[in-house]
Amino acid sequence: MTDARTDGPAVPDGTPTTQPIVPRHTVTIPAEVSMVSLLGPRDELLRTMERQFPQLEIHVRGNEFHLSGPSAEVALVERLLDELIEVIGGGQPLNRDAVERSISMLRSQSVERPADVLTMNIVSSRGRTIRPKTLGQKQYVEAIDENTVVFGIGPAGTGKTYLAMAKAVAALQAKQVNRIILTRPAVEAGERLGFLPGSLNDKIDPYLRPLYDALHDMVDPDSIPRLLAAGTIEVAPLAFMRGRAQPVNSAVLTPEGFRRFGDLEVGDLVIGSSGRPTPVIGVHPQGVKEVYRVTTQDGASTLACAEHLWTVRTPDDKRRDRWRTLQTSDMVGRLRSGHQHRFELPLMDAADHVPQPVPMDPYALGLLLGDGCLTTRTTPSFTTADPELVDGLQDALDASRLDVEVVHKDRYDFVLRQRGTSRGGIVEGVRTTNAVTAVLRDLGLAGTRSATKFVPEVYKANAAWVRLAVLEGLFDSDGGPVLQEGRTCRVQYATTSARLRDDVVHLVRSLGGVAYWRTRPASGRPPGRAGGRPVEYRNDAYVLDVRLPEGYVPFRLRRKREAFLGSGGGHPTRYVESIEPAGEAETMCIQVAAADSLYVTDDHIVTHNTLNGAFVILDEAQNTTPEQMKMFLTRLGFGSKMVVTGDVTQVDLPGGNESGLRIVRDILGDIEDVHFAELSAVDVVRHRLVGDIVDAYGRWDATQQRRGPRATRPRSAGQDRS
Questions:
Q1: Rounded distance, CA 314 to CA 324, Å?
Q2: What string of H, E and C letters represents the secondary structure of 473-536?
Q3: Considering the domain boundaries, does residue 82 fall inside one?
Q4: What are 429-465's pLDDT values in tens digits?
Q5: What's the 3-state SS for 31-52?
Q6: 536 within a domain of the structure (yes/no)
Q7: Both 30 and 104 in a single domain?
Q8: Looking at the structure, do residues 396 and 539 belong to the same domain, yes or no?
Q9: CA–CA gap between residue 64 and residue 87 (Å, rounded)
């Protein structure tokens, strides 16, 4: 603090005077404060004070300021010196602009202190600290801290974008967000970037260069390519923000099963990565777009556009226990590191489908699909060499309340005979329908053989325990654990039915597992033996390798179950195998209410489409249409912040289109957690002339409005007056 004292003029006792008495005020600067820092090189800052306080006489002797003039101005200088000393003490160097802005803030009688404004650190990089420089900028920065969506509106040079970028980098460094997304409309090209020469980067760089320049001021330039490649920082035109889409003919998983993507409406339920239903809160048609087929190493695939979002992790991310978000285009050409897959996709938890009643216990159905005869030309039968499976089948049929008993026929063959009937199902001379036969007919399984069996839909889109029980029956009969030293146990299953193969893959994926399959062709295989006779193979066989998540034991048969548990199950993984162009398609994107914004699409692939955990900046927002502004704002994800910046006096939209920034306050002005920060010429921090230019144009615009619609701009000297 300064030490101040006020002295009257030195007048000899008894000597009358007619001169007005001008108080003299002395301000003593603490010894620890450098006078060079306070006065500036060649007293530049002292000269600035003298220009700003023309009614005062300011003299400096040693570490004392001697002030003469009106008491209000003297008091203002004393406050100014206190503020400047505190700024110096905070390690902030002073310059002419800082002194002038401090004086302006003091004259405005704001409750904010200049020292608080000028010492507020946002982010530091390479020895440089970025701070607000005006009161309006400080309030803008504080609004970003306190609100989820902030609109920074003001003229050029007020630091709207630069400060928003600094807050984004600070949030990323503090791990408050996991990515930064920077975007602006490319209106000069009508967002039709495909007609511009060069690569995609060549096309968009001119419109995004200001964002890159600000980014280079705040982040080590050597790390920027790495952050861009990892998706931690994304810079893209606004047109790309709306393009995160899938074809309308894609499938999306719902509590009732898969449904056409394009049929979804707001309020519908889809399955999220947790396996639980989550509502759709946004549906956005995207028109015809180029799409790519994204295929995983286990054969699952789906279609998506180049800007569609994916949650993935690399081997390095896995070691650090983190996930990242990338676009489809970010992964193209980078799918492998040596012989290792690079991008792992998350797997869903078991889907929570709506429970439905089933006509037969699912375990019994699985056993019969595996080792049963379902032709229904004769009494249904079951073949096994394991008595434990016979008992399991009988218990499951009893649980289904089917009045059927498993009766031994010959060696390994058993028939499923209606209780109380003789051979042929005859009771007191009347033929009765076998209960299992009736169920098989209702399910459409009657008459199927080994190569045509399938799992009925009612079992596939049902509760998790139903789906698991079907797998248990199939694997107990025709599958088994595969034990490998040093690895967890996988399950191998074989069938000659292509449809049953696909159904087993579906059931495994619906429980959060992965399933690979390969074909063993019938042709060329040595014949098998039956009854001592060679038997040729009639159908190709499909061999599946299955991994289910931890906690799911796909066996009830004791010996298989013990072998599986002995080596430990679980740990399925899914990686992106290929990304190939797949033409064009009508597309759409959705937003879901799940905390991670993930939903499940074709083949139970987990994907997402909003911006969670992101700091999103929309620059030059005055050049967005109302529709584009709505599209952008509805991309807001959980744990994210949005800052929208623009100058409503510089709209460049073609064809007289209305600016979305001009009307957004009328739409969102009364919504909590949305803030509108107004910056003015006072907050311009470029060359001092910029503020004067902004003010001059503002006065000219006001004059033109008062003159009315007939007012015209002055003609140039050579303009034709005819």
A1: 9
A2: HHHHHHEEEECCCCCCCEEEEEECCHHHHHHHHHHHHHCCCEEEEEEECCCCCCCEEECCEEEC
A3: yes
A4: 455 789 999 999 999 999 999 999 999 999 999 999 9
A5: CCCCHHHHHCHHHHHHHHHHHH
A6: yes
A7: yes
A8: yes
A9: 19
In a domain, 498, yes or no: yes
DSSP 212: H
pLDDT tens-digit profile of 17-48? 555 555 678 888 888 888 888 888 888 889 98
User: What's the CATH code of the domain at 512?
Assistant: 3.10.28.10
**pTM for this structure?**
0.69
Cα 300 from Cα 602, distance rounded (Å): 8
We report the CATH number of the domain holding residue 310 as: 2.170.16.10
- Give the distance from CA 714 to its chain's centroid: 52
Last residue of one domain, picked from the residues 119, 146, 177: 119
* 529 shares a domain with 583: no
Note whether 514 and 435 are same-domain residues.
yes
Cα 11 to Cα 6, 19, 26: the distances in Å are: 15, 11, 18
Q: 536: alpha, beta or left, given left = phi > 0 and alpha = psi -120 to 50?
A: beta
Structure tokens at 114: 């200049």
Report the candidate in 342, 312, 316 with the shortest Cα–Cα distance to residue 324: 312
Q: What range defines the domain where residue 58 resides?
A: 3-119
**571/550 Cα distance (integer angstroms):** 7
Domain membership flag for residue 602: yes
Is the separation of the CB atoms in 567 and 488 below 8 Å?
yes
Residues 101 and 131 in one domain: no
CB atoms within 10 A of CB 145: 11
Which tokens sit at 468? 């698991």
List pLDDT tens digits, range 247-297: 999 999 999 999 999 999 999 999 999 999 999 988 888 889 999 999 999
104-113 average pLDDT score: 78
What is the spatial distance between Cα 235 and Cα 212, in angstroms, rounded to a whole number?
8
Residue pair 129/651 in contact (Cβ under 8 Å)? The answer is no
Check whether residue 106 and residue 79 sit in a common domain.
Answer: yes
